[in-house]
Amino acid sequence: MFPKLSSASLSPRPMDPTIVQVAVRRLRPYDIDEVLGSICWQMDNTADLVNLACASRRFTDACMRVLWASPVFDGSPLVGMAHLFPPDLSQRLREGAASPSTSSDRRRADLSCQQDRNLRLPPKAFERFDYYARFVRALHLWHHNSESVIAWVLTQSRPGTWLFPGLVDLHLGASGDVLKTVPLYFTPTLRIVRLNHWDNHGLWELEPTEELRQSLLSVCALPALEKLDLADTLYTGVEHDPQLIEGFKKLAHWLYDLRAQSFLTLPAVFAELARNTRLHTVYLNLTDGKTYHEQLHNIISSLRDHFAALRTLGLVCTAENAVRVMQETHRAWWSVDLQIDSAVETGQLHEITTSLFARSRDLRSFALASPTHLLEFSDVSPALRLSTALQPLQALHRLRSFELDITFGAGQMLGDQELVRFFRCWPDLRSFVVRCDSDHEDGALVADEEADAAVTLLSLAAAARYCRKLESLTLPFVSTSLPDRADIPGPPATHEFELHLLRSHVHNHTALGAFVRCLWRNAQVTCAGCIHYGRTTFRV
């Protein structure tokens, strides 16, 4: 039934060498783009990536995609990339971006600027610029006035072509005077926008201008936007604009993360926020109290009954309102950020932490800041100390970030034993920050503060022992006398670490560095508050 096979037909046939070579070549991991890209993203040494990019054209694009994903340009990306154009055009672009130093220089710069704004580049001049710009995913733009001419020239040279076509994350700082060209960076692919504004008067509230209005409208029109942060400035002057209200209603309906001190408590916008089932982070300003904003009791009831996915809450409010929100919303929070614009009593702080203890056992991050002094007035006697006010947080064992920024004296500072108890309760802690005088943290200590300092280097040893993932530690009123070597845990952590000792007399920098190195091998130490040395930063 079956054909009879000869012995010759059963013997293996030699495989064609070209087939063997193709098979071997196809098995090489770096021939698969996804695998090669994953390998490059795991390389954290820039020099290694550059060497790999130069080794073969096969690796160049994958390495450039990592190297140029978030380039560092000191706040002026287009000025830094001007050299990618032909030399004569590059020089003209840089001259247009130069900052004049004298009045005659300014007059010449104004004339040169007008001439440079009329400059147009041929398409071929963009070859090198386009190659690198297509890899850029995140930018920090701070010195926008230094490169506004370049942005204008490049955009007008190719209308309809974006400067950075794959941009995803933009952190933008701009004054009200230079907002006209800001929309040139608003690529449709943007998913994250952080917009920091300031004006020439140093005010927190911007003057309403057409440039400001158009910039905000451009933000509202971004089709892929997921996160928007406008929380550092007030935009009260344009809150009544109908187009902006509609734009923020649209954002409030589908963003995941929305932070702003204006617009969000307008009734029409807030109603959309409450219905957003994807919103996990919101930052609200409850201090305006204007009649056209939503009332506080309505905000509290909506936070309690709606906002289905909300886990992170930021508030600008009084201490009394912060207590009300924490107590009456009856929600479990993962992150709480409170910017208090009134005096804070230790009793009020204790009510806030008690509310978190009762309902937010999975809290990951807690931050409270106030420009005022911490008051010890309380209904109980003796008045609550800071350590007692914070004690309920010890039960929140998943806490990763703690920040307290409020003015208080050395007598209120947590001592070694109290800090040890906190560190022992927070094994996943990444950042622990206590600032006692945010306006004058570099100021020198007075004699009684030095004598009353309750924190020693034993607290640092405890942080290293119990919080093995700690990356940043900031403490005030620290005495740097060296403890017994037996108190040093081992072995030292090897990850990058930052230590800030504020309002502390530090004279023994060398000995302090050696002690810190026994705890964290790759640490940067900053000391501030000593009348003899001022602010000092060094690596161990």
Features:
single chain, 540 residues, alpha/beta, Leucine-rich repeat, LRR (right-handed beta-alpha superhelix), 16-stranded mixed sheet, 38% helix, LRR_dom_sf
Task: Explain what this protein looks like in three dimensions.
InterPro entries: LRR_dom_sf (IPR032675). By secondary structure, the protein is α/β, with parallel strands linked by helices. Among the domains are: 30-67; 75-167, no CATH class; 168-310, Leucine-rich repeat, LRR (right-handed beta-alpha superhelix) (Alpha-Beta Horseshoe). The protein is built from 21 helices and 16 strands. It has helices at 7-10, 17-27, 33-42, 46-55, 57-67, 77-81, 87-97, 103-117, 127-133, 144-157, 210-220, 242-254, 267-275, 296-305, 319-328, 346-359, 386-390, 416-425, 447-452, 457-466, 509-519; strands at 138-141, 169-175, 192-198, 227-230, 257-260, 281-285, 312-317, 335-340, 344-345, 365-375, 401-407, 431-435, 472-476, 493-502, 520-530, 534-539. It has a 16-stranded mixed beta sheet that branches. Strand 5 (257-260), helix 13 and strand 6 (281-285) form a beta-alpha-beta unit. Helix 7 (87-97) packs across helix 8 (103-117). It is globular and about 75 Å long. The chain starts with 6 loop residues before the first helix and ends with a strand.
